[in-house]
Amino acid sequence: MTWAESRANCKRLPGGADLVAIETQQENEFLLKMITDLRQGNCAIVLTSGRKNSEGGWYWASTGKPFSYTYWWPGEPNNVEGAEDVVEFYYHTTGTYRWNDRRAGQKFCSLCEIP
Ligand SMILES: [Ca+2]
Ligand SMILES: [Ca+2]
What pLDDT, in 10s, does the model give residues 7-38? Predict the structure, then answer.
């Protein structure tokens, strides 16, 4: 699903669910373990609620709060073609995931969270 479709899908779940907002290193490590364990499928890219605002600052769409913690790949966010405005976990052949900015309209896996 695209970012918008993924968010709408999360919001259909009970309990006020939305795309995940990653506030702490502890939460990031929990999610890393979960998506790494699940990676046998084709989820090399896993969307979060992270978005870029009009000033270029990053925030979690599900909470409205700016990032308090980040886990970018080196060289990211790189805003390819000036069009990358959502945040994903991106799997690299080095064997782990870190964060990358990505175009919002492409279809990938995603993570929901119940606050
Ligand atoms: Ca969270
Ligand atoms: Ca990028």
Answer: 999 999 999 999 999 999 999 999 999 898 87
CATH topology classification for 3-113: Mannose-Binding Protein A; Chain A (3.10.100)
Which structure tokens are listed for 29? 């490590």
Query: Residue 62 has which token pair?
Result: 């599900």
pLDDT in tens, 74-100: 999 999 999 999 999 999 877 789 999
- Ligand number with the minimum distance to the CA of 65: 1
CA pair distance 86, 1, nearest whole angstrom: 13
Query: Measured in angstroms, how far is the CA atom of residue 44 from the centroid of ligand 1?
Result: 21
